[in-house]
Amino acid sequence: MRKKQFEPLRISEFIEDSFHLPPHEQNYYELVYIRSGRGTHVINKFELNYERGDIFLICPADMHYFKIEKKTHFLFILFTDGYFLQNKRNQKLYSWVMELMSDKGLKERKLNIDEHYRLIFSHVLEAVRLYADTAISQHSDWLFDQLIAIFGLYKQISEAQRLPQQHELYSDRSISAYIHRYIFSPEKLKVSILAQKFNIAPSYFGIYFKKNFGTSLRSYINTYRIELIENRLKSKAYTLKQIAAELGFTDESHLSHFYKRAKGFSPLYYRTQLIKSSP
User: Fold this and answer.
1) How much is the pLDDT for 255?
2) pLDDT exceeding 90 applies to what percent of the chain?
3) Considering only CA atoms, which of 94, 85, 78, 191 is closest in space to residue 136?
4) Which H/E stretch holds residue 50?
5) Which CATH superfamily, name and number, covers 219-277?
6) DSSP conformation letters of 171-225
7) How far is the CA of 231 from the CAs of 149, 234, 255, 264, in angstroms?
8) Alpha carbons 279 and 274: distance in angstroms, whole number
């Protein structure tokens, strides 16, 4: 099933005991805010528990739906790529919103939002909800600014959670965010590409990275790849062949060799142990 939307922006809400849609794709982007309730968000074969105050981002490449355990109040902010890229100025300033929405790695785990930030999100999103209850203008500068604030805070939290805790430099966040965004495209993570992207001499980039991250670029990338592999092994919906293809390995054997060298045991052993330990 593929849902379609043609308006640049639409805001809606539902209170449901059972989600009104089956697993589906869509031609638009979507931010889902949980005002109340409890259940599971299933997205791209990953199952993420949700509760009050959680936020999820969905793009057209995603397949998702919700399994509701406790009656849930959803707030949906639906938009097309044209909303944030309305003119040349906005394309340059706000292209990061579309990059954030399309970041596959962010979809595999729930954003960890503490109570302080949950309170901020609740106030801003409640203001957006109340505005949409009366009238919604696609060209409202006020509404546009609120949505930019919401996505900006989400981006800030997600980038901070992806960094080693001891490093908080802005340059680290930029590089880290880039690596996580393009982890599925290894050709974009070559030193020559990264050095050019962040205006650092290729011969110095490795030294710069290790100084700021406390580990080598290769080790950092491989650690994240291991995390992505294990996320897929946990989901039980991915075959080794599918995991290898998605993460850029030549075949299952290449994937298994990479994983075993890093962990000391095979990915199939890891999955077997997960199955044994599950209730």
Assistant:
1) 94
2) 61
3) 78
4) strand 46-50
5) Homeodomain-like (1.10.10.60)
6) HHHHHHHHHHHTTT-GGGGSHHHHHHHTT--HHHHHHHHHHHHSS-HHHHHHHHH
7) 30, 5, 14, 18
8) 10
Residue 194 · residue 205 · CB < 8 Å: yes
The dihedral over CA atoms of 229, 56, 39, 232, expressed in degrees to the nearest 10, equals -10
Q: Which CATH number fits domain 2-162: 3.10.290.10, 2.60.120.280, 3.10.129.10, 2.170.150.20?
A: 2.60.120.280
Angstrom distances, CA of residue 14 to CA of 74, 78, 95, 124: 5, 13, 29, 19
| Beta pairing partners, 50 | 39
- Tally of residues, the chain: 279
Q: Residue 244: pLDDT above 90? A: yes
139: confidence class by pLDDT, cuts 50, 70, 90: confident
Cα–Cα distance, 64 to 39 (Å, whole number): 14
**Lookup: tokens for 275:** 């199955």
Query: DSSP state, 104?
Result: G
Cα 268 to its chain centre, rounded Å, is: 26
Kindly state the greatest CA–CA separation across the chain.
Answer: 59
Q: What angle do CA 124, 128, 131 make, to 5 degrees?
A: 140
Question: For residue 147, what are the contacts with CB-CB under 8 A and spacing of at least 6?
Answer: 77, 128
Place of tokens 């399994």: 67
Rg of the chain over Cα atoms, rounded to whole angstroms, equals 20
Among 3, 5, 72, 59, smallest CA distance to 33 is for: 72
* Residue the block writes with tokens 């690596």: 179
